[in-house]
Amino acid sequence: MTAITDFDALREAMAENSGQPEGPARNARAEELLTAAEKLGIPLAVIEALGHQLKVYNYSSEKGKMFVPFARLLRMWDERPEDFDEYETHSLHWVFKWVSAGMLDQPHIPLASIEQWLGEMEHRYRLAGHSERAVRSAEHSVAAHIGDVARAERAYAAWLAADRDAMADCHACELHGQGWWQAEQGRDAEALRLWQPVLEGEFTCAHEPHTAFASSLVPLLRLGRPDEARANHLRGFRLVRATESMRGAYAEHVEFCALTGNEARGLELLAERPAYFTDDGHPQSRLDFLSVVALLMDRLTGLGLGERQVPGPAGREWTARELAAHARGEALALAARFDERNGTAYVSERARARMARQPLAERLPLGVRSVRPAPPPVPPAAPVRATGRSDLPALLAEARRLSDGLRPNAVEAWAAAAAAAEDAELDPRDRAEMADHEAMSLGPEGTDLFERAADLYAEAGDPGEALAARARGAYVRALAGDVDGAVAAVAGLYDEVLALYAAEGTGMRQTASVVMSRARILTRRAHEGEDDGSALAEAEAAVREVLALVDGRTGKDVRLAARVAEAQAMLGELAGLAGDLRRAAELFARGAAAFVAAGLPWYAVEYEARLATLAHHLGDAAETERALRAALEHGGAHLEAPGRAQLHLQLAEVLGGRGDAVEAARHALEAAHWADEAGESATLGAWARQQLGGFLLRQGRWAEAAEVLESALPDVTAETHGDGAVVQTQWWLGDCLSELGEHRAAAERRLQAAEIARHWPEQHDHATLAHLAGESLGQAGLPVEADRAYARAGDLWRALGNTPGLIRALRARAWLALETEGGPAEARAMMAEAIRACETAREEAVSDEETRQQLVAELGDTHRQFADLLTRSVPEGAEGPAVRAVFEEALSRLQRAAEMFASLGEGALHSRTGAELTAGWLEIELDRPAAARARARTVLSAYDGYEGYDDTDADAETEGEGRSTVRARRAEAEHMLRVASQD
């Protein structure tokens, strides 16, 4: 570490330390720098070093350390105020507010001392001529902390009434504090109104909108605005995650997870910050954190997960139940210390109320991967034995009602009846239906039970139902793979039931059941031999026989209506096997509609989903969307998680395809949620998250998209999703990070994506990603690495014959050369190469007018940038013939640029006038005011009668930008005229 030998070196070291991450390491360095400052023998150096130390303490978890340097600063001010320059004088008064707030957060500082300090602050502010606004704000904080609502309201009103001056907190911090008080008083809507400018980025500072996002979460949930709460959690947590001093805001995000069914994510958040459990430099934020830890652990315990291992204080393992008790005890002990200091019970009451909060949403999907912890399995209850007073008759009646109506959960109802009737005396019919439905629940393993049910039906005197049970058994044999055996078995059953029906020995329902089972089995065989026309024909004939038997004879029998609907859908299935997709789609639609008409919409889901797939294949986007919406509507609460996830994801893709990114994002969010619920987080869930990230990105919701894409990325693999999905995820994430100003991370993502794309046969994506990586590396302050990326992109653009891409890469490298060893000479060479490449390509594109015009525009832009580069390469303050020669060359380049843009007509008008104005300022530099005035008049003439953007297809934002450009150009030209006239 370089020794500090002078004041400039000290200031440089302090500036460097200010840019380091918050935390003990930065604080320790500030302490070293104070020691170095004391050795310089310069009072102002010590003052600045103390101010630096105070600042880093305030923005860390060691806030309690800031009182000592402040006391020393105040003593130095009282003894020798002339040692303080204007900035340090301002800073000394400014940090009074930090110290006031800091005292409140330290329970060992007596309340009387705090009140005395508040009076001292008021006195010193009055002497310095400052408004009392900051003082009243500090008084409000004291009153609010101790629970003196009346005094807090008076101070709040005085705070807002006082004039804003140099000592007032920034707008963002003030609005956050005002909104916090409104929320504390239950005025959530007013709080959010106050926070809105901060949340929208109108007012920002080092800790805003970080804390406003966190504070808004519970109020938004209480107001029934979960979508905004979700967005603020994703955006806000991204801001506080890396900010060590924001434990209180971090706690609010953990609390949000506990109150929205996102307990697993809450645990992930705790695991990221183990030091937050024990850091004691800021007791108030530790109290806040431990309170929400207790809340989250109680929530887990209430879900039956009290013995689950959870993140906790280092040194031992913790279960949720143990951590709940520990956190509660620590929090209440801290609260008691505050209350003892304050002489009230207010802090403890608030802590207990916070720990006792109840969930505000059963489950609010966030889009990021976080599967809700499953409670341990509940051991099965002892079966209920039937007695004379048993509810068995009611259970049997309910089961029969559900099964006769083909209602969901009929199988479960029969299982409940069977459990209740374990040793009861039942007639054969009851036992037959129990066995029959148990067999249905077993699928391919239920063959033997179907035989048992058939025997019981026969014993009960129902030979038709016995045949139907055996036919169901034959079908499950087909499902298990024994199709030939099933065909053979059902043939005899089919003959028997038709004979029995003809002799009026059984009814329509039983006969239709056997005929349908035969049709199902033959359809199954047709699937296995898709090229066997005879199998298809036999299956279709069997299905039509169902319709011939039942259609028009259903009456009010739901089971028979279901046979008609299923037969229609089966004909669609067979049409699809035969290659007639349009006919298949029509029949699936007919079958689904028949199920809905019969009052059985849940059976329509499968066929609407199949119809959606067919419609998509046929290019009918509208029908695809309709069918998917219908499937979700018809399935309702009966849809299982995997199917629900698939339908939402398909609908999201359809909506995204037609440009509705907002609704597409909603369905992708649902798809991710249900995929997690289905245990498919790493497969279907990852794909849904990837899509959700893309839809959020299209809406410009960069922070939310980045959180979602970062969550998806570990699970998006080439093996499962394809390397194209991996590249797209990295690409989108790079775009988000770039928009968020995280340029180094954006470059990393873009380079990783480029490395995969470099192996693809088509290299356009590789070139684009390399180019984007160059942009990010340049913005991250890594010019050498950026130049390598642009060089790679340029080689690829050249190989692809993409001259615009090559030109842009060369121009970018020219600008980077000014920052690297190449210097102005290499920068000139790069720009000259870009011009040659553009001119060559323009000459070769004579027959392609659209390409030629694009290249003319690129050439004009390259001349313009070349001119800008030339002027910027001149050292500041340099003069003489050499400088004049550079300006002359730049002016020549601008003239060429203006001519190029002029040849393109009105479409390049703004580019042309921009070049003219830049040239005009150079004319003034070269002492040619008349030429500058001529260029200014040229610009004004170009806009004479021009009202701005007149493209009727342009949106309002684009039109507004056009009009703004016109106004700015005119204003600059008029200003140039005045300056040139004065010269």
UniProtKB/TrEMBL annotation:
<protein>
    <submittedName>
        <fullName>Tetratricopeptide repeat protein</fullName>
    </submittedName>
</protein>
<feature type="region of interest" description="Disordered">
    <location>
        <begin position="949"/>
        <end position="968"/>
    </location>
</feature>
<dbReference type="InterPro" id="IPR011990">
    <property type="entry name" value="TPR-like_helical_dom_sf"/>
</dbReference>
<feature type="compositionally biased region" description="Acidic residues">
    <location>
        <begin position="949"/>
        <end position="959"/>
    </location>
</feature>
